[in-house]
Amino acid sequence: MAHLTREEFQKQQDFNDEILPHLDAIYNFALKLTANNDDAEDLVQDTIVKAYRFFNSYEKGTNAKGWLFRILKNSYINNYRKASKQPGKVDYDEIEPFYESIRSEQSNTTDLESQMYGDMMDDDVTSALNRLPEDFRTVVLLCDIEGFTYEEIANMLDVPIGTIRSRLHRGRNLLKAELTEYASRRGYSGE
Questions:
Q1: What range defines the domain where residue 70 resides?
Q2: Domain check: are 31 and 84 in the same one?
Q3: C-alpha dist (Å) from residue 178 to 28, 33, 88
Q4: Residue 102: what pLDDT?
Q5: Same domain, 95 and 186
Q6: Nearest 5°: phi and psi at 5?
Q7: Which of 42, 99, 148, 169 could hold 152 in an S-S bridge, CB 3.0 to 4.6 Å?
């Protein structure tokens, strides 16, 4: 069994203290991006591996959650680009009947997701959020669900703060339009 040096042990301890408390938050964000439990778990695992690998570049005591979200978002974009360059592997029309037959048999919600979003958003709200274009959905999720500031989001996504403000404004307006009927069914008026 290999023994860790004092520096390696300290790196592991610092990593555990700074990074691991944010696992639930990055998993929920990954789940919202991928809409698939397995893909979200893979994305989180990839994020944690990269975070550990580059932990020496992280400045202890700074915004670990923001740093992780940026790594996760970059990994998601890189994985998406890589997947989009690969040839199609399965014809959806061939598997659709099978998918529809087993869809009702499985749960698409994890316990963590239920805890985080179960009381906060029902299916109509979640569906409306998922229908937003990805750029708008990501900014709305990071700001309104995760509570990041405009500056933090701009740093995570590597775009100007004005772009964040614009996407958030447009995303909220699109979400408002999606939820107008939902609100009226629950007795809210647009006045």
A1: 7-108
A2: yes
A3: 22, 19, 32
A4: 45
A5: no
A6: -75, 165
A7: 148
